[in-house]
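Anyone else keep sequences and structure tokens together like this?

Example one:
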Amino acid sequence: MMKILFQVKNLSLKKESMGKLYNASISFFGGMIYSLAGLDYSGRDIFLKIIKGNIDEKKYEGVFFVDNKLLNSAKKIKEYIYIFSLQNKIIDDWTVAEYIYLREGKWFLSKNNLRNMIKRIEVVLGDFGLDISGSKKVGELGVLTRYQIEFIRAIILNKKIIIIEDEFTNMKYEYIELFSEWLKSNLKEDMTIILNTYSQIASYKCSDIFVCFKKGCIVKICRKDSIGGIDKLYNFIVGSTMNEKISSLSSGYTYNKLHNGNDEVYSVSGNFFGKNIETYSFAKGKIYSFIIEDHNNRYRFFEAISGADNKDKKYFIERYYQEVIHVQDLIVKKIISVDGIGERDFLAENMSIEDNLILPSLNKISNINYLINQYELKRVIFEELKSKDINKEDLVSELDINQKICVSLERWLIFRPKVFIIFEPFIYCDNYGLSLIKNYLKKFAKAGTTVIVIKSRLEYIEDISDEIISI
């Protein structure tokens, strides 16, 4: 019989200024994996922030139980929780043994103690079916093994509640499948896992139970097998409103085919992956999505297409050869490349939305172009950036991630680039942010911009791409 390991009862925010959460109650059973689902402001993130102790206890009410022990503050749950993420601060030159066993940092170990620690962890790793030397450097591990090591570390620390916050961005589909199987076979009955990810694949593969939030409430808790397949998961999570948004973006696509017609706007020729000379040509107003699983190759391709790595490459804009010494040579021709949409460095956080929109965009657009376009910029601010939640005087630092993404993309849209190259656009997204970006990419294409998306997986871009190229 399954045992209730962790309980949350009547959890509510006292004030709505931080968000909404009303009377959230749920029991987490040992040996089970729960996936939190819901749009931004659905209550999902607030729920997790409280559980992790990131919100002052005076701002919420509710009680918690771990192993039937009453805890009247989320701060007391911290000793039972392990935050599982590859963003955890690690030192790549630590050995596997040091990373798993040492807590606050390295301290002096005799050679004998170090040998014993390595032998001890190798026995533990063997129990989990891993043939890894305890003296191997963490930075040398593959991504699947890093996930496994992170989970083993949580077990060694005797944590009961594992919160996985990761987008599985660099993990191939088959590795997600392998990790899911391995995780479930090694999850102990006195542990429970709470998965918080916006990767549909990872969420569906790894989870046993889905917990759905809407308008600050837990509206449904159901087993995965009641959903009826991954193709129905997205609609199940986001509901009909989001589905209408996504369906309005639908367009046909083809695989492994590149445009080579008379409306060519941009083309790049060269040796991209140490193989033969290849040419990639792009037409006006089309969305091209490149699927490249290997992270190094994926970023190398992004640098080549954007002109950052131009060695032995030839660039043509509207069929005319363009000499490229620096990436700026393409930028002045309105070939714009973006990496890290939504990151803090992307916008001037202490300035207003209006100032961010009318500033020359991070030196990628010249001051002359800025002056020429300033009246258009003002028009956009007053006519196009309409929202009940924000206005042009708001500081960017006060915006949520979706609004920052909106301002970032609006800034680029104003300048009507010829080509817009974007690397892994959905990393920082929730489901609503996903819809925003997809709408903007279609908006770019409709304005005549050629859009080039470079991703690790097919997720999210099938319905907006005109051509999908798997490399």
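And example two:
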Amino acid sequence: MTAAGGQGPDVRALAGLRVLVLGAGVSGPGAVRILHALGAEPILADSRPEAIARLRDGLPHGVGCEGIDLERAAALLGRTGARGGVDLVVTSPGWRPDSPLLVAAATAGVAVWGDVELAWRADAAELFGPRRTWLAVTGTNGKTTTTSMLEAMCLEAGMAARACGNIGLPITDVLLAEPRVDVLAAELSSFQLHWAPSCRPDVGVVLNVAEDHLDWHGSMEAYAAAKAQVLTGRVAVAGAEDRIAARLLAAAPAATRIGVRLGAPRAGEYGVIDGVLAARIGDGEGDDDEVALLPAADVRPPGPAGILDALSAAAVAMSVGARPEHVAAALRGFTVAAHRAELVDTVDGVRFVDDSKATNPHAARTSLLAGGRMVWIAGGLLKGADVGPLVAEVAGVLRGVVLIGRDRGRIAEALARHAPTVRVVELASGDDDGAAGPDEPQQTMDRAVAEAARMATGGDTVLLAPAAASMDMFTDYGHRGRSFVLAVGRVAGR
């Protein structure tokens, strides 16, 4: 795959340069605004004229950009170095490195930055005031919950902090925000990190690393390497009980390395002692102080994943000055975001749980093993992940399975191998061939929940934990979760 970046122009000398911004989605507006503030000439490229129009209409007064289609963007890259070419490409993080336009940029010798790389360089050069403190959170699962907890802890400690990146505002917007934000609690995906090769956060955490986005990165090694970038600053934090995350931590160049575990913490780690979240802080020579944070029972979301997220956020926050009382207060007041193992309703003794955010097998595992018999609603886009190990591990808790989405056949094959006695229902939809109407996703989800309800008996859980991405049928995981909630309401007779 095409490598990210290249050095490119000096960010302090972008004035007058033509910069091609690829993608009018979430990161596009912030990239256009910050480029305009730096005096560059942004040119926005997208295949959707309506998205370009919507972005341009939403820009502040006096901020403008030319909007072009992808064919014209390719022509501009072909003229690089000649009159009318471009000097830099700023890409939306979702664009794969082997996309034709990015390959063309590499061939033409034009540097490609993501919006995080642009923001990092501008902040490091202090173009928008003194450099901020960057706290980066990544991992296959738990990023949003950990980042939200981290923001709450920093705010409790009196810091001017803001959750940003893959949650809340793009980092480019935060640099321009008023009042000023001094501490960035940045959720960073592997895509964003791939396109931000210069980024060296002050403190970074890798929560866990499991198979995901392999279709994008090309290999597990490349995916893990992208995650490891957040461990290159002053302090590196990682899940000590996650095999790959622990390996990345051991190899990290950070001066301070902190492990996080569910068991009792070792020297310099965070963990759980007699049911209480705690840290062992000291010089590692036998006189480490045990610092209690709060009872594990007070953490929301409950369970191992929530506790690890809380410990990880605490390790990052306390590395930049938060105290135990700030951590405890923030966690006691923390509210879990929607679609994360959320109890929707109980009907005739059957619990209906929405874990639509479980967009890969590693994430689905936690909910499937939460206790009791499960009727599992799964399927979507597996993104190159192998679902076989998950199915083998959870086969014993499955009452039945309802499969939806484009890659449902691969999950069905794994179930036939590892859980041959479990009843499986596959539901086709028009999304399989791209011919779905606007009501098709909801109709499919209604059928899935109805089938699952018929399989379940009192005391069971009907669990939406798709282990796959949603974009084959739904706008995003939130749309999928809301569809599940509507379907549950119909089963309940509402």
